[in-house]
Amino acid sequence: MRLKFIDSIAPLASLALVSLAVAGASVNSDLLDPATESPGLAVGDAAPDVALVTPEGEEIDLSGLYADGPLVVTFYRGGWCPYCNMALKEWAGRFDDLTAAGGQFIAITPEKPEDAQATIEKANAGYRVFIDPEGDVGKAFRVQFEVDAETRKAYKNYGIDLEKANANGLWELPAPATFVIDTKGVIRWVHAEWDYRADHRAEPDEVIAAVRDLD
Questions:
Q1: Measured between alpha carbons, how far is residue 122 from residues 108, 191, 209 in Å?
Q2: How do residues 142-186 score in pLDDT, each as one tens digit?
Q3: Which of 117, 111, 116, 122 is nearest to 162 (CA)?
Q4: Which of 41, 62, 123, 173 supports an S-S bond with 88, CB 3.0-4.6 Å?
């Protein structure tokens, strides 16, 4: 039986607790089935060889970023998600600590460039955001899934339409995962869950400690 990813998000001004279940299998084999598969590449895996896209349309290789120092990569669903906004705002106050540990931080989102820029401005953050225009980066990190039909209907009832919000116009989302990649391109720390609520996100303290502990 297919599980469903049912999100009872209250109006976005409210941060009410949501009920959770997860979307079922997708016809795209590159998309994960949250009913049967766990999200995220594992510790020890090589970081995927992917190109990231800035909101301005510039392509930057992921390898060029972690070559400059340990890299924290976090995926967020979009500025419409209150839990993503909370997590990004929390990170905004921790960059001095991360820099002192030798790390750098980027965020990756499926939303349109103009919406991603607005999300970062709203978070008042000093980090770089990259667009995943076709969902290929999410797939490469094994966090991408397809939203089921019932959840699509529920989202639309709250004014959330991923066909309009996402750069690729598809009902796909990443798990809100966080990875630490060392300068050799090896994933050294992972937090990836399908549950997107605040208490299931990577804690900045733990991420910073993981960067500090790198050899």
A1: 16, 25, 27
A2: 999 999 999 999 999 999 999 999 999 999 999 999 999 999 999
A3: 111
A4: 123
- What angle, rounded to 10 degrees, do the helices at 113-123 and 82-92 form? 50
For the chain, give the number of residues: 215
Q: What does the angle CA 148 – CA 129 – CA 84 come to, to the nearest 5 degrees?
A: 45
Which tens digit of pLDDT belongs to each residue from 16-74? 333 333 344 344 458 999 989 999 999 999 999 999 999 999 999 999 999 999 999 99
Structure token pair of residue 200:
């299931």
User: What's the start-to-end Cα distance of the chain, in Å?
Assistant: 45
Angle at 83 between CA 25 and CA 211, to 5 degrees: 90
CATH number of 51-144+161-212: 3.40.30.10
